[in-house]
């Protein structure tokens, strides 16, 4: 039995209501976790000596609009000694998506969670410093959401320069 | 007036990041960057200083955010490839490779052996080029000014090699889904060989320039100490992590593109300081040279891109003879190819650490979501913790030693 299989059966045994499902795609196993038990699952993964998932590799947010639940957070955790990777998936509703913060377990979750907050508009309960990270502090909207338009700039030529110029937003003093 | 009020709320928002002494004026707040040569790009740091000593350091990123992930969603898988070049501008080939590995995993594309070896050669040449830029810039931060121009001179030879194979110095987009863009010209192996013969002697020179320089040693040894467990907890990867004695290299732990066929060592140093990170990178130069030499030996004639016409264009010669080839050619370049509905994660070892790509398809020719786990973004978090208690001058050495690229941080 590989370390990954051991981990999955240990999690399923310990959290019968927290682990909602298991999916395999292209050889990678993704465990779907209930957002209410995410912190407990992560703490167990890190602290249980037999599991030893001491690294949080990444947090990625995906927008499945117009499906519901709309958002998914993918957590990739890694056990260095056993060289095993596990992917956790947490589904969040489209209205007020909020997940518990795991930055208390792995400090490296701090910035990835801020990025998901900034770009996808997902809140993290218990995050010590939940501010925008890539976009300016006064930015409106969350650019990586599917309903956020892809901006572009009209190309100005000599014949339509004035016409476009009149529509352009310039900084006013 | 309203503008002033807005600024006040911003300071209020940041209050929890400073010590209480900042409010009383006992410590000084200082802005460093974003336009400062020692921040290696457009990194802004908000420093709280007690004299020369850093009490807290708050990195402010996003100045180079170009919406690459968002833009990629609006393009087909193939057209989005060119955007990955522009992410980490010192690791263009590695970015291509990571993204292509994710596509290949998502669509289950087989890559021919020759393409895999070419990819390894390109990735390692890119690692040398990136480390050369790091060596030059981090040394000039510490006032070793002569080394910068030497490093850029040598890097230019790698840029010439890339121009030879991809027609471009930096933004080559040479690595494509299913293989590489085209086969390398006949003179490529000899050109690489001659560069590999040239480099080791130069590296010895650079090492002598720095290792026998008491100022460089005084400014790097015992500066910026982070032990292995802390480094892992903060999400550090790559040479910065291996400088703390943690044996983690994606090429070894989760081999991709045939790295399991290469013999190389993962350099480890236990000093945990700026100097240890410098030593790791200097040794990585030699390992990369070793890998490229093996790659040149493994390079056997054969196809350089998959023969599955859904994922690679047909050869030009076929277009005049086969109707099918014309259809494939047209469909490939206009519609692209559909990818299944699912998510994959592929990772490579970039010169800065683990570069990962979380790719989600939606059944159509465009990605649903492309998310990059970039090493610089994750490593930069540690700076606020790592710089505490050091002098401002040491902070500059620390920034240099974690080797961040702001294009990689902000994407």
> Which of globular, elongated, flat, extended, rod-shaped describes the shape of chain B?
globular
Give the terminus-to-terminus CA distance of chain A. Answer: 68 Å
At the fold tier of CATH, the topology name of chain A is Beta Polymerase, domain 2
Based on the structure, what is the oligomeric state of the protein chains? Answer: heterodimer
Return the CATH class of chain B: Mainly Alpha
Strand order of the largest sheet of chain A: 1-2-5-4-3
Query: Which CATH-level-2 architecture of chain B?
Result: Orthogonal Bundle
Beta percentage of chain B is: 5-15%
Largest interface: A-B, 42 and 45 residues
Mean pLDDT of chain B: 89
Into which percentage range does the β-strand content of chain A fall?
25-35%
Which features does this protein show?
heterodimer, A: 173 residues, alpha/beta, Beta Polymerase, domain 2, five-stranded mixed beta sheet, two-stranded parallel ribbon, 4 helices, B: 411 residues, Cytochrome-c3 Hydrogenase, chain B, three-stranded antiparallel beta sheet, 19 helices, disordered N terminus
Summarize it.
With 173 residues, chain A is of the alpha/beta class.
Overview of this structure, please?
- The complex is a heterodimer of chains A (173) and B (411).
- Chain A is of the alpha/beta class and 173 residues long.
- Helices cover 23% and strands 27% of the residues of chain A.
- Chain A has 4 helices and 7 strands.
- By secondary structure, chain B is mainly α.
- Chain B contains 19 helices and 8 strands.
- In chain B, a hairpin with a 5-residue loop joins strand 7 (353-361) and strand 8 (367-373).
- In chain B, helix 6 (113-141) packs antiparallel against helix 7, helix 7 runs antiparallel to helix 8 (188-211) and helix 8 runs antiparallel to helix 13 (274-298).
- The chains are: A alpha/beta (173), B mainly alpha (411).
- The A-B interface holds A 25-26, 28, 30, 54-58, 60-64, 74, 76, 80, 83, 85, 87, 106-108, 110-112, 115, 119, 128-129, 131-138, 143-144, 148, 150 and B 6, 10, 13, 16-17, 61-62, 65, 67, 69-71, 74, 105-106, 108, 229, 232-235, 246, 248, 253-254, 342-345, 347, 354, 356, 358, 360, 368-369, 371, 373, 377-378, 380-381, 385, 410-411.
